[in-house]
Structures are given as C-alpha cells and as structure tokens.
Specification:
Strand content: 5-15%
Number of helices: 6
Largest sheet: 2 strands, parallel
Number of strands: 4
Strand order of the largest sheet: 1-2
Distance between the termini: 24 Å
Number of domains: 2
C-alpha cells in the first residue's frame, strides 16, 4: 500500500479506519515527497516530539520510494505536457505518483522499466 500524506497522518494519529487498512497491507510504501511533507508539518506541530518518536518507531517498517533521476525526468515531462494541455494537477501529486510507480517497477522486476506517461512521454531507464 502506498501512503499519501493523509494516510500517513491518519496512521500517526491512530485513526481507527487507517489502522484497520494498514494492518491488512502486506507492504507499506512512503514516497519521499510524502515523508518530506510530513516532516515539514510536524515541525510546526505542538506535538512534534510525539510525532518524531512515532516516526522513528514506525518508519523502519516501511519502504521509502526515493526520487531519482528517472523520476525527476518523468516529472518534468509530465508537468510540461499538463501545462501545454492546460490541465495542471498539484505538483506533489505528480511526484508521489511517479515515485510510487518507479519504486514499484523496481520492486517487481529488479530493474527500472519504461512506462508510458500520458500521450507518449516515456521515462528513461
């Protein structure tokens, strides 16, 4: 299961609905952009220490989808295409999507696979 910022926050807050779903998952993946946003958020929280402790306890049980060159290149191409089509989506959503797809492609095949993006843009191996 790939977690977005809302799912990560719900897990950290002990939301019963989130905990039930997460227990059923065989694998938890946190995109690095999501982790960055979460860390940014807890820097502002009055419960910062509690969230940092929670994170240090729970992060080791997850996989981190790290953004590398292939992801960054795919991100740039998709953002350009979306801009040209006047159909923008939030930048973080594009990062999370691409990071997750590329992470899973490596996990399933052992190598980075090319995949079609929108109407013809392709990532590089």
């Amino acid at each position: 299961m790939i977690l977005d910022i809302n799912a990560l926050s719900a897990w950290a807050d002990g939301h019963p609905g989130a905990e039930g779903l997460l227990r059923k998952a065989t694998r938890l993946v946190i995109p690095s952009v999501v982790l960055g946003e979460y860390l940014f958020g807890i820097l502002h929280s009055r419960y910062r220490k509690r969230y940092e402790e929670w994170l240090s306890e729970n992060l080791p049980s997850t996989d981190l989808a790290v953004i590398g060159y292939a992801t960054a290149k795919a991100y740039a191409g998709i953002r350009l295409e979306l801009k040209r089509k006047a159909t923008p989506i939030p930048a973080n959503d594009v990062w999370i999507l691409l990071g997750s797809i590329l992470f899973l492609s490596r996990a399933m095949t052992g190598t980075l696979i090319s995949f079609p993006i929108s109407s013809g843009y392709r990532s590089e191996n």
